[in-house]
Amino acid sequence: MAEPTAARIARSAAALESPLTDLAGFDDWFAEHGRSIRTTAERIPLAAMENWYQTPVTGDLRHRSGKFFTVHGLRVHSPGSAVPWWDQPIIDQPEVGILGILVKEFDGVPHFLMQAKAEPGNPGGLQLSPTVQATRSNYTGVHRGKPVPYVDYFRDTSRHRVVADVRQSEQGAWFYRKRNRNMVVETTGEVEVLEGFRWFTLGQLHLLLSRHDIVNMDARTVMSCLPHASRPEGSLHRTTDVLSWINGARSLTTIDTERIALRGLDEWRHTDMGHSHESGGFFDVIGVSVTARGREVGGWHQPMIEPHGTGVIAFLVREIDGVPHALLHARTEPGYADVVELAPTVQCVPENYAWLPPAARPRHLDEVLAAGPDRILFDTVLSEEGGRFFHARNRYLIVDSDVPEDPGHPDFRWLSMDQLTRLLRHSHYLNVQARSLVACMRSLEATRDSA
Amino acid sequence: MAEPTAARIARSAAALESPLTDLAGFDDWFAEHGRSIRTTAERIPLAAMENWYQTPVTGDLRHRSGKFFTVHGLRVHSPGSAVPWWDQPIIDQPEVGILGILVKEFDGVPHFLMQAKAEPGNPGGLQLSPTVQATRSNYTGVHRGKPVPYVDYFRDTSRHRVVADVRQSEQGAWFYRKRNRNMVVETTGEVEVLEGFRWFTLGQLHLLLSRHDIVNMDARTVMSCLPHASRPEGSLHRTTDVLSWINGARSLTTIDTERIALRGLDEWRHTDMGHSHESGGFFDVIGVSVTARGREVGGWHQPMIEPHGTGVIAFLVREIDGVPHALLHARTEPGYADVVELAPTVQCVPENYAWLPPAARPRHLDEVLAAGPDRILFDTVLSEEGGRFFHARNRYLIVDSDVPEDPGHPDFRWLSMDQLTRLLRHSHYLNVQARSLVACMRSLEATRDSA
C-alpha cells in the first residue's frame, strides 16, 4: 500500500526549506526575472484595439478570430433579493482552460513547479503562477504564440499520477459560466526547469501567500484542490445535510439572466473609452494596449474589467468541538453555471453599498471590519486574475469569531475544513474566493510553525 | 454514535417480508386500486390541445400559463462523432421538480412509502412511484389541482432526517437540461397512509423491480441515490483517476446546441398530428387527450414524446479482485447540463442504427444481445417517465462479462459499485439509465437471497 497522497502533501506543507529553492533568495530571483519579463498596459479607446471589434448595433466586444472571449451585456432578474433587477457587462469565455501545477518529489518531499509570470492586469508586475495557465486557444495555438511549456503533462496524464483534477468556476459577477480545469499532476521523470520557473515546497508557497500580491489567483485555486488531511475529524452538520442545504438553495433560488447588447445596458455610460456604471461604482470595461517583453508575443490589445475599490473577502472561523470550522455563505451570482455556490462569509467591495439599499449591506461585514488584531489570523491583499482584470485587489481576511452554531440566517452555515476539502474534489461547490481562503487557511499551519 | 444510515438501509434491503405489506397481496391491491384510478390517453391533433398553443412561425408547443414545459427544436453539432450534425425536437422544462420517498422505521426496519400512480404514458396503467413526484408547477398549484400529498416533508426538512438529496438529470436525448431533486426523507412522526399509498421494505421494492413495468423511473432514480454499503471495498481505478477521466471528457468534448424552430427541423416531417423523423425511426412528438379518474384533475391535454422501438439498456459487470464492477460509458447527450455523464455500457434502440452509419453502432451491443441465459443476471422491461413519454420501454439487462480490465476504448471504464454509490451523492455524474441499473444491481442481492 503506497503512502496516501494527502500524507505526502502534508510533508511538503511542513517543509519550509528546500535544497532546490532558498526563500531568502526569492526577492532577488523575482526582481531579476522581472527585469527581463515585463508587461505594461496602457488604456486605449475600445475602437483602437487591434484584432478586436465592436459588433454593430450591440457594441459587444469580440476578437476577430472568434476565439478568446466576448464582452456582452447581461440583464439579471433576481426576484426576492435586495436588488431584484440590474444590468451589467459580463465576459463570456466558453472554453475550458487548464490551470495546472506539476509536482515532483525531491529528497522525499513533493515540490511544486511555479512560474514567475507577468500579466497585464497585475498591480505589481510578476506574480507566482501555476506551471501552466492556459486557455484552450493558448495551448492549441490560435494566437500563434510559442507553445505553452509543460502543457503536455496535463493534456495526457496517462504516464503520470493525477493528484487533483476538477473544473471550477471563476468570478460569477464578471464571467458568464467560465470554468477552468484545476489540475495537479505528479511526475517521476526528469523535468527541465525553464527560465522563470522554480520548484517550491507547499510550505514555502504557504509562506509566500502571506505576502501581498505574490501568489496569483490561479495558483491559489489549484492549491485549494489539493488533498488535505484534516485532524481531528468531525463536523457540526452531517455532510448529507450540507449537500441538501446546497441543493435546496439551488432548487429554490431563481436568478434569470438574459443576454443583451453591451451598449443597451441600463444605468451604464457608454463612451469611446469604455463602459462605466452611472454611479461611478462597481467596475469599468476598458481597452488596453499591452507591451510584453519575454512573453509569448511582443504586444497585443484586449478588453479588461477594471473594478473600483479594494474588496473585502473574509472567513469567520471558530472551533466547534475542537474542529476548525468556517462560516460559508450560499451565494447567488449571475455567472454561475448552477445558481448558487458556497462563498466566503463576507465577499464585497464596501464602497459599492453606498449606492445600494441598506438591506443589501452584507451580513458580518461590520464584524470583520471591526475585528481587533488579536482576532485576525490572516490579512493579506491578493489580486485576481491579471489576464482579464485590471488591478482587481481584495483584502483576504481570516477572523476568529464567536458567531453561534446557528448563525441566524438560512444562507449561512458552519462547515468543517475537512468538509470543504471533500467538496473541493467536485465542481462548483466552492466559489473562487472561498477557494483562495481555503488555501490561506491551510497556510496558517505553516506560518504558525515558522513564527 | 447512531447506527449508520447505510446499515439501516441494508437491513431494509434484507427484509423481504413486512408486517405492513404482504407482497402476495400486491397484485390484488394494484388491480383494485387500478379500477378506481385509471388514465387513458388518446392521440389528438396538436392544434386541438386545450391550453396549449403552437407559437406562430416556429410551431413550438407551449402551455398558455407559460409554465410546465415547452417543446422546441434543437440543432446539434457534435464534431468528431459518428453523427456530427442533426436536428431534433426537445422538451424544455426548466423547473426543478421533487421526486421524494418518505421513509419511516417499523419494528426497526426502514419502510418506504410508495404510491400506485397512473400516468398517461404508462404502457400498462399503474406503476409504483415515489411518495411525491411533482413539478414545481404541480406543488405550487399552477394547474389548480388538489394539493400534492406529503410534499411538505420534502419542502421543509428541518424536523426530519435527510437520507439523500441530490439533483439529477433525466433523458438528455429528450429533455434540455432537465433536473429533478431526488430526495429521501425519514420521519419518526405519525404518517397517515392515504388511499393508493403503501409502505414497502427496500427488499420488497427490489423484488418488484424484477417484474415488467411495475417500479417506475422516478422510483428507480430515487432508490439509486440511497446510501449503500458495498463489501468488499476496493476498485480498479483510484477515484481521483475516475474524476479526472470525467473531467477530461467534459473539458475536451465539444457539443454545440442551438435552439431552432420546431417546424424548422431538417429531416423531420411536420403534420397536424405531430412531428416525426423522415426515416420513421427515433421518436415522434404527439398530442394526447388524457382522461383521468381519481387523479388531481379529471382530464387534460398535453404533448408527449413517443419513441419507436424498445431500447436496450445494459451493464456489463464482472468482479475485479473480488469486487463487483460495472463497465460505464462516458456519454454525450445534447440535453445534459454538463456535456458528458456516465451511462450504461449499452444504451440504444437497436432499430435506429439501420439509418445511421456503421461507425455509430454501439460498442458491446452485440455482446449483450448474444449473451446466454447463464450470463444474464437481470432482464426486465421497465418504462420511462409516463408523464412525458408515451410507451417508452426499455429492456434493462445486467450481463456477466469477461471484457478485460482495459476495455480498449477511452470512453469506457470499469467502476466499482461502491464508486458509483459515492458519485451518486453528487449531481450529474450518472445518467438516468445508469441510475436505474444501479437500483437493479442492488436488487440482485434480494432476489438471490429469495431464490
Please give the most extensive interface between any two protein chains, plus how many residues each contributes.
A-B, 24 and 24 residues
The CATH superfamily of the largest domain in chain A appears as: EvaA sugar 2,3-dehydratase subunit
Question: Stretches of chain A where pLDDT falls below 50 for ≥5 residues?
Answer: none
Helix content of chain A: 10-25%
The residue-averaged pLDDT of chain A reads 93
For the terminal residues of chain A, how far apart are their CA atoms?
A: 36 Å
CATH architecture label of the largest domain in chain A: Alpha-Beta Complex
InterPro entries (chains A, B): EvaA-like, EvaA-like_sf
Protein name (chains A, B): NDP-hexose 2,3-dehydratase
Pfam families (chains A, B): Hexose_dehydrat (PF03559)
GO molecular function (chains A, B): lyase activity
